[in-house]
Each structure stands twice: as C-alpha cells, then as structure tokens.
Amino acid sequence: MTGLVGLFSRASKDPNQKKNNEKFKEFKKLAKQKKYDAAIKSGTEYIKKVPNNHDVLFTMGGIFYLKKKYKTAISYFDKSLEIAEYDVDALLLKAYSHQKLGENKRAIQCCQKIQEVDPKNKSVSELLDQLNS
Questions:
Q1: Which residues of 5-15 are buried (b: 16+ CB within 10 A; e: fewer)?
Q2: pLDDT digit string (tens) for 23-74?
Q3: How many domains does the chain have?
Q4: Which of 35, 63, 81, 113 could make an S-S bridge to 30, C-beta 3.0–4.6 Å?
C-alpha cells in the first residue's frame, strides 16, 4: 500500500519544505535566545519563501514591538491577523503598539475585537481603562 501517489502521497509536494522547516527552527531558536537582530534577518528570509506562516509573522511583530518599532510591529500583526483574525495575542500587542504611537482610537478598535471572542480578558479591560482615562 505504500505505492499510493497523488492525494494520499506521503511525500511533500514542496521540494524546499525540509530547508524551510530548518529555517523556521533556526528563527524560533534565535527569537527564544533573544538574538533579535539575527532573528529578524532569519525571519525575513523565511517569510520570503513562506509568506503565510502565522507563527513567524506574529513573532516578528513581537520582536519589533520589543525593539520599540511599533509601526513595523503593527504591519506584521496585520499580516498575522489576515490568517487568524481573532488571535487575541496579536490583537493585544497590536493594541499596545497603537497606544505607544498615541493612536488610541485604533487601540480601542483592537480591544473591541478581542472582547468579541474574550469578553472577560483582563488585559483588555486594563488597557481600555488607560485609554479612556
């Protein structure tokens, strides 16, 4: 039964998948080790080959947030939210980024979206209190 091909094939259709998986692991390791500049370089190369990897897009956004590059962070969060529209973590970091840029209206919009799926989210309540004060 190992001779099946097509729909049931175990072989990857993407000849670069193994290389991409190694790149992904390298990126995650660099991010975990807080080697952010190297992680950004690795992540950027990976995204060129695999543009819709939610984990990489979200992590890249997180790294740029930590580096206080909020506009760049938001662009990565937006891309990750195209894949997972109600990712609470991405929405929350996007809201914090907007807050840091003084874009309170946009931050509030992110909070409202989070509340649609997680109405009791404590971080959102605290952020909304700050934004509305």
A1: eeeeeeeeeee
A2: 999 999 999 999 999 999 999 999 999 999 999 999 999 999 999 999 999 9
A3: 1
A4: 35
